[in-house]
Amino acid sequence: MTEIFPTTVVGSMPRPAWLLTELKRKNKGEISYEEFSTIADEAVLLAVKYQEDAGIDIVTDGEQRRDNFYSFVADKLEGIKLMTVADVMDYVEDKSRYEQMLRALDVPAFAIKSPVAIGPVKRKRPIALDELMFLRKHTRRRIKIPLPGPYMLTRASWIDPVSRNAYWDREELAKEYVRLLRDEIIQLRDNGASFIQLDEPTLTEIVYGEASRQTFMCAAIFSKVDPKEELNFATELVNKTVKGITGVKLGVHVCRGNWSRREESLLRGDYSPLIPYFQDMKVDQLVLEFATQRAGDLSVFRDVSDVKELGLGVVNPRTSEVEREEQIISKVEEAIRYFDPSKIYLNPDCGFGTFAESPVNTATTAYQKLEAMVRAAEKLRAKYS
Amino acid sequence: MSEATQLNGINLEKLREIVREVSANREKAEELNVWRARVRWLGGFRGRAYVRDHTFIIDEPSDLAGVDTAPNAVEYVLSALGGCLTVGFILNATKNNIRVDNLEVSLEGRIDNILTFLGLSDQGHPGYREITAKLYVSSPADPKTIQEIWRKTVETSPVGNTLARNVKIVPEVSIVDS
To answer: A280 is in which domain, residue-wise?
Structure first.
């Protein structure tokens, strides 16, 4: 029987320095994706070892092969080009908004890259099946595969007018992603993935993003849109992607940015504006940050039905201090007021190395935080089983 | 092993040749001491600048009664400084055999008191009081070397020196029948 309070991660672990060197070589075209991926095998083994040693029940490959959680699709899909903000600014009219964003983030235009749809998007390589197949050879734990969600991909990669070369509008591009992601999810399920998580972090940006920092992770900046319309669009895309797929746990992850340890540069606000959309999403689990105070209170789930499971963020990936077990237990017990204990998974708020070049923690601290989470889960099991 | 001929997109032989020529030929150096531009009024707050074989528009944003078809003059000053620092950094890096993979200069200037330009105040002056120029650079060189090249670039920047020192402006006028 599966134990309650399973532990898992959201996705990424910090990459070793030597892997970053090889990643740069790949990005410069000095080595192929396949050559890089073979080198990354070793880093995946390390990431898995850390998770297994910490006692994590459902492991990922630490996203070691990815430069970040969504840009990596440029290696996997035809028609997608990794463009910097500097490249994008050559095409767009509202350049001043990009300038505002660069100043707010204190970054140069050459540093932010986004996968932009420049032609018909087709599968060149599996999006994540290679990651799953390698993991299956090297771990007996259950496996989680994070995938960039259909809304995230559409939002990041639709740049008008570049994307109009291939698609009439972003809805048409979104359909392509829904189709590609569905095919991938089915293949991942058929090959033994236990849990597939769609990353949709920009949902919080729709409700809490300000113009000056409107795009916390993409080169694409949206024109001001009606948040309700946008959230409906995102929900519809998630539902079309997972429609009718059974036999694998499906989740959606939402956070408020994870590119910096400067809390003030990340978004703030509770989940209440998103709850009606969460209720409509046909997924098994919501993987949500709650260790950070910026995510607000769990009480927003009072009287909320239709949310099947909660992947509860109990450790903050961006802090140096390791959370105490009592702190984690107390957070879980708060969640128990609104969710049945059998419906709660424990995870960090987000990845420890969402962006390869700027991990938010060291591997050692990440490991210690995972260990603390596992110890807390053991105590909770003893109490609630 | 043959010597590299290009670094940072600069032809090294050509660069050496220019340095040789300018240091040996005072007339050539004097030529490079003088720069010219002409600006013709286009109506409203718009103007067109003519510089050698190039032209560009100067306008004001709509909230300053312009039509915002181009940057305004003080923005060109910032861009000129940014351009000058970019060229200077690449020149100094290349001379020191340092590869630059990426470079951006982000500038922000604060006018001392814009009301004096509009004739609404006698306090202060309508020029920049302070300009911040931040360099973003990707290069395999060590941070100390980068800092030193940046220091030298700012110190020897023609536009930087123009702004930081008191340049004598000689106003002349010629009234022409049209």
So the answer is: 17-384
| B 83-102: CB under 8 A from A | 102
- Most B CBs within 10 Å: which of A110, A112, A113, A357, as the mutation test of the B interface? A110
pLDDT in tens, A209-249: 764 344 445 545 555 578 899 999 999 999 999 999 999 99
Cis status, amide bond into A161, omega within 30 of 0: yes
Instruction: Using pLDDT thresholds of 50, 70 and 90, give the confidence band for residue A109.
Output: confident
Within a domain: residue A292?
A: yes
Whether the Cβ atoms of residue A80 and residue A115 lie closer than 8 Å to each other: yes
H or E element, residue A373? helix A363-384
Give the pLDDT band (50/70/90) at residue B126.
Answer: very high
Does A9 fall in a domain?
no
Nearest to A291 by CA among A316, A259, A317, A265: A316
Tokens of A133: 């197949």
Give the residue-averaged pLDDT of B60-70.
87
Number of domains in chain A: 1
Q: Are A102 and B106 within 8 A, CB to CB?
A: yes
ipTM of the complex: 0.77
CB distance B102–A102 less than 8 Å? no
Q: Which chain B residues have a beta carbon less than 8 Å from that of A110? A: 102, 104, 136, 138
What is the DSSP code string of B60-126? --GGGTS--SS--HHHHHHHHHHHHHHHHHHHHHHHTT---SEEEEEEEEEES-HHHHTTS--SS-S
User: What is the spatial distance between Cα A338 and Cα A298, in angstroms, rounded to a whole number?
Assistant: 8
What CATH fold (topology level) applies to the domain B72-166? GMP Synthetase; Chain A, domain 3 (3.30.300)
Q: Which pLDDT tens digit goes with each residue over A144-157?
A: 999 999 999 999 99
What are the sequence ranges of the domains in chain B? 1-34, 35-71, 72-166
What local confidence, expressed as pLDDT, does residue A214 receive? 41
Q: Rounded to the nearest 10 degrees, how much is the dihedral formed by the CA atoms of A79, A82, A84, A88?
A: 10
Sequence-distant (6+) residues with CB within 8 A of B34 are: none
Please check the confidence at residue B123 and state whether its pLDDT lies above 50.
Answer: yes
For an interface test with A, which of B102, B138, B139 has the most A Cβ atoms less than 10 Å from its Cβ?
B102
Q: pLDDT tens across A79-95, in order?
A: 999 998 888 888 888 78
> B138 in contact with A at a CB cutoff of 8 Å?
yes
Per the domain annotation, does A371 fall within a domain?
yes
User: Per the CB < 8 Å rule, is B104 touching A103?
Assistant: no
- For CA atoms A14, A19, A21, A27, the dihedral sign is negative
Query: Is A109 in the B-facing interface, judged by CB distances under 8 Å?
Result: yes
